[in-house]
Specification:
Sulfite Oxidase, Chain A, domain 2, five-stranded mixed sheet, five-stranded antiparallel sheet, 38% helix, OxRdtase_Mopterin-bd_sf, OxRdtase_Mopterin-bd_dom
């Protein structure tokens, strides 16, 4: 009897905990994203995330700098007609007089901005995928430092998605958000980059430690639960090196199918994912890329026919110049490209017409010290119907009121009877279908 009682009262052995790597059904129901076991991909890990973060650190910094330079190229502090972000305040502290050389300056800047942005899309998506478990961690805030990290992460993710989405829609000329693209993208860029810097400052030490410990070592579990590696990973179907190779191949594919729109000839045909790619729009001297057509801008033959005349205004009063009279003035030539904010550009075209500084002299200003000028188009629809150019742009001898291109009269879609062409300026500053030039102080 005593022996039986002693046997019954022996302590029962404690059950052994199930290993973390067992399939989810054996570990119980884990159905919410807040549960660490919900995210089971073995690819996630601090080193995988760190590699993507370093690529984005370099790429997004380049995008931010080239974006600010692109904004400066519009001379937004010159006149209200150029300022698409009214009320920017101290955010315009860096603005400067945009130069006229080298002539390919804006072509290079905007080509890098748009092409690098497109190529970074797979990297950005992979980065967001790698850290998505952290968006659902509980409790949401554990300390002040953790609160700052979560806020920066939310602003970073939201800002990145907003900037990339609005930028891609603008490139495709299918912008559908309310309001103007320029202030939304400008202010969104500042919010995004501020969050990006804050998040980088908070996570850079951890990323450096991870990279020093071996960038792509497989099967290394995190030292703490704050890292993105899953506590119970599923069986691996691809290594982290393989996942990075897939991301890199996606970026190269995006690059190969978009960069060509910045070049003429066979390379442009490779730009399958962007407007102004594919075949050239026509043959002959006027057979190069067009942003907006005369029909799109509401320009008719009545606006540009025999009754057309350019009005030049200044201290000498108003002077009306027919196209024949403009052709009778001294003609000058310049080889200049057209580069657009959407990232596409043309090679140098051979423009011929009257220098802007000669027209300023006709308006009553010294030819060697011309002022700013307000350019007005006869177009009825579309943005930048009125544009202001700085005095340094007017003064440059390559800045023309172009009447001909590549040895032939301008076509209607390229701005007949007269258009502006200025070195290193964004394409929309090279106003087409010019009807009036007002020289004078615009600031």
């Amino acid at each position: 009897m005593d022996a039986r009682r002693r046997i019954r009262t022996l302590p029962r052995p404690l059950p052994r905990p199930l290993p973390r790597s067992l399939p989810r059904p054996l570990r119980g129901a884990l159905t919410t994203p807040a549960d660490p076991g919900f995210w089971r991909s073995p690819v996630r890990g601090v080193r995988f995330t760190a590699v993507l973060g370093v690529v984005l650190l370099a790429g997004l910094t380049l995008l931010f700098v080239t974006g600010l330079l692109s904004y400066a190229a519009y001379n937004p502090d010159l006149a209200a007609v150029n300022d698409k972000t009214p009320g920017k305040g101290w955010l315009g502290f860096y603005l400067f007089d945009w130069p006229t050389g080298p002539v390919w300056l804006y072509r290079l800047n905007q080509g890098l901005h748009v092409t690098v942005g497109i190529a970074l899309v797979p990297v950005l998506l992979a980065k967001l995928w790698s850290v998505i478990p952290k968006l659902f961690t509980l409790p949401p805030v554990r300390s002040m430092a953790h609160a700052l990290e979560r806020i920066s992460l939310l602003l970073l993710v939201g800002g990145a998605l907003f900037e990339f989405l609005t930028g891609l829609l603008n490139i495709q000329l299918e912008y559908v958000f309310p309001g103007s693209f320029y202030p939304l993208h400008f202010y969104g860029g500042w919010v995004f980059f501020a969050a990006f810097l804050a998040h980088t400052a908070l996570k850079l030490p951890q990323a450096v430690r991870a990279l020093r410990g071996g960038v792509l070592r497989e099967g290394v579990l995190p030292a703490d639960r704050d890292e993105p590696a899953p506590p119970g990973p599923a069986p691996a179907t691809v290594t982290r090196r393989g996942a990075l190779a897939v991301v890199g191949a996606g970026s190269l594919l995006m690059l190969a199918t978009s960069a060509g729109r910045s070049f003429d000839g066979p390379l442009r045909a490779t730009a399958l994912l962007t407007p102004r790619g594919g075949a050239e729009p026509g043959r002959g001297p006027n057979g190069f890329q067009i942003n907006k057509t005369a029909a799109y801008a509401g320009v008719t033959r009545a606006d540009t026919g025999e009754g057309w005349a350019l009005t030049v205004s200044g201290p000498a009063g108003e002077i009306r110049l027919s196209r024949d009279r403009l052709l009778a003035m001294d003609q000058y030539s310049a080889a200049l490209p057209i580069a657009c904010v959407e990232g596409w550009s043309t090679s140098d075209q051979w423009w011929r017409g009257v220098r802007l500084r000669d027209l300023a002299a006709l308006a009553g200003y010294p030819a060697d010290r011309p002022p700013d000028v307000l350019v007005e188009s006869v177009q009825r629809r579309g943005s930048f119907r009125r544009v202001a150019l700085r005095d340094n742009q007017v003064r440059d001898p390559r800045s023309l009121l172009a009447l001909r291109v590549n040895g032939e009269d301008l076509s209607p879609d390229h701005g007949y009877p007269a258009r502006i062409i200025v070195p290193a300026a964004p394409g929309v500053m090279n106003t087409k279908w010019v009807g009036r030039l007002t020289f004078g102080e615009l600031r």
